[in-house]
Amino acid sequence: MLAQEIIRIKRDGGVLSRDYIAEFIAGVTEGSVTDAQISALAMAVFFNGMDRDETVALTLAMRDSGDVLDWSDIDRPVCDKHSTGGVGDNVSLMLAPIAAACGLAVPMISGRGLGHTGGTLDKMESIPGYNVAPDNALFRTITREIGCAIIGQTGDLAPADKRIYGVRDVTATVENLSLITASILSKKLAAGLGALVLDVKFGNGAFIDDMEETRALAESLVRVANGAGTRTAAILTDMNEPLASAAGNAVEVANAVGFLTGEDRDARLETVVLTLVGEMLVQSELESDRATAIAKARAALDDGRATELFGKMVHGLGGPVDFVEQFRDHLPVAPLIEDVAAPSSGYMTGIQTRAIGVAVVEMGGGRRRREDEVDHAVGLDRIVPVGTAVEMGDPIARIHARDAASMDRAREAVLTALTIAGEAPAERPVIAETITG
After folding, report:
1. 252, 123 in Cβ contact below 8 A?
2. Tens digits of per-residue pLDDT, 200-228?
3. Are 11 and 105 found together in one domain?
4. N or C: which end of the chain has fewer CB within 10 A?
5. CB burial string 281-315: b at 16+ within 10 A, e below
6. pTM over 0.90
7. Burial 251-276 (b: 16+ CB within 10 A, else e)
8. Active-site residue list
9. 84 and 56 share a domain?
């Protein structure tokens, strides 16, 4: 059918068949469908929506527009985690080796920083020699022999989504649940997963602040992914403060190694990591009981198996063989490192988390433009969590800066973002809800 006739059906509030959607996406991939036609269909979907079957069909058509990885030669369940983005979100660095130590294969295809949130690839590139773009043979070897590999997009995954998103980005059609769902899942499902767990964040540091909107996105993702044949669940996590006590690249890698070795584990971060791994084990059907699955994940962390696998993965992908043991010697260090002193006594009652993320970007730890280079050494660590009692002059964060000017700006941003008051705040669980298919 002509692309304009497919657009007309959706414009008039009709339901598109799987064949019509597949035909349109094939045209997007081949180039026979124009940007104007992509824009027109996106706008029609924006106003008229898509039902579950349409969204499943769109997701699968976009998934199949390029390579779909095949892991049939691996004798363990293949599962991954996707996060909607957050500040201090270094979960992947610990989750992948813990899940691998529990018997899963985790071919983790990650992205770079987006907006005020950090990117897993930027963090991993803090490690000297680490190759985030290995050839397919090495990627498969590391995943098969070690159990996990954290890399960037490989091959030609979901090229239709890349083109459609580029049009949506400049035509005010980004904010549609079906289009967001298909965009996220098409790339993840192209990785050939048997199961998927989603970390969907809400709060002042997330892309979606509102809890109800976050739940709607999580439910859509779970419903469509399961409809597409991939066992999927979502965890709704609180991003009203940084997840780790560090925000940046090298500082988050250091935080992750400290977590794995047991040197220091942020409490909220530990809860999220272990819950996500537990859910991965349940969705992959290695465990049926969530409490048992979480206990299994904790054992793999505490007995050192996950730490060993992380070190092997880093070395297998080009990093130092002694990275775990000597990570402080290998990671880049900023020229200036200074504490931020509490301006008053009381309790840490709130953190404007987005402002923390923006401060790291402005220091050079993220990108203002796509082509910008990232300064892996800069960032914040030792960020005091909400609920902590502090005395005036106590350190409430530590800044890693390239120069005095950026140090001063970061200090001002931290003091503005962190709130100290006389009464302790009410406790707030880091995990609000689990949504299963």
Report:
1. yes
2. 999 998 888 889 999 999 999 999 999 99
3. no
4. N
5. bbbbebbeebeebbebbbebbeeebbbebbbbbbb
6. yes
7. bbbbbbbbbbbeeebbebbebbbbbb
8. 80-83, 120, 168, 183, 187-188
9. no
